[in-house]
Structure formats: structure tokens, C-alpha cells
Amino acid sequence: QVQLVESGGGSVQAGGSLRLSCAASGLAAGYNCLAWFRQAPGKEREGVARIYTGGGGQFYADSVKGRFTISLDKAKTTVFLQMNSLKPEDTATYYCAANPRACTTGLRIRDFLDWGQGTQVTVSS
Fold first, then answer.
1. Which of 19, 39, 55, 79 is 20 to 30 A distant from 124 in Cα terms?
2. Among 69, 87, 82, 83, which residue's Cα sits nearest to residue 13?
3. What is the C-alpha to C-alpha distance for residues 97 and 87, in angstroms, rounded to an integer?
4. How many Å separate Cα 42 from the centre of its chain?
5. Separation between Cα atoms, residue 63 and residue 112, nearest integer Å
6. Which of 46, 30, 19, 23 is nearest to 106 (CA)?
7. Residue 74: phi, psi to the nearest 5?
8. For the segment 2-57, what is each residue's pLDDT rounded down to a tens digit?
9. Distance CA 78, CA 54 (A)
10. pLDDT at residue 69 tops 90
11. Closest CA to 83 of 113, 100, 60
């Protein structure tokens, strides 16, 4: 049903930028919460940012606040993650996730049922 396809990953040097894109299809007709998570080798998956298609403020993990920006396209079916001032610790597989409900407080893995396949981001020092 729901498909989430990430793109835009790659390898960059520290201080560089990347823009990730997640194209969603089969989403519920109503409002949805769209989010980005990431998982580094040997670490647990963690939330990065989320945005509600019905409006309202975005939410960011403290580790990326001020450096990353999440946004939507006009149709609100594509979510972007602009990543600036990248650091080696940002290296991870980035996943797009969707929840057919209003966003909850913060970012919790259990709140998201649909996930993309992930796109790799590697930041070298």
C-alpha cells in the first residue's frame, strides 16, 4: 500500500551539505506525520526530524537542530531533509517514515508504521 522512497544520499566531506528526498505514495487521504530517522552502524535507530502535513511546527532532534531543515512539497507527498554543516557523526542510513495520524510529541519509532528502504549518508573528516 504505502510506499516511501528515499533518495539524495551520498558521500561528502565534513561541513558539506546534502538534500534528502522521500517520495510517498498510497498515503491516507487525511493528514499524515512524515519523519526522518537514521541508524548508524552498531547503533540504534534514532529520530531526526518530523513534520505534519496539516501544518504546525516541525520537530528536530537536538543533535541536528540548527543544521537540518525538514520541509514538504506543494502536494505534501514528498518530504525533504536539507542537511547543512554535516559532521562525521551524521553518517548513517537515513529512513523516511509515515504515520497516518497527527504527529506525536517528539519522535518515537513505535509511532510510525510505514518505512522506506533507506539512503546512505557518509560524512568524512
1. 79
2. 87
3. 23
4. 20
5. 21
6. 46
7. -60, -40
8. 999 999 999 999 999 999 999 999 988 788 999 999 999 999 999 999 999 988 88
9. 14
10. yes
11. 60
Contacts of 47-56 with CB under 8 Å at 24 or more apart are 47/106, 47/107, 47/108, 47/109, 48/81, 48/94, 48/107, 49/81, 49/107, 50/103, 50/107, 51/79, 51/103, 52/102, 52/103, 54/102, 56/103
CA 88 – CA 115 distance, rounded (Å): 24
Q: Where are the beta strands (DSSP E) in the chain?
A: 3-7, 10-13, 18-25, 33-39, 46-52, 59-60, 68-72, 78-83, 92-99, 114-115, 119-124
**Cell digits of residue 67:** 543544521
The DSSP output letter for 21 is E
Residue among 13, 35, 15 nearest 24 (CA)? 35
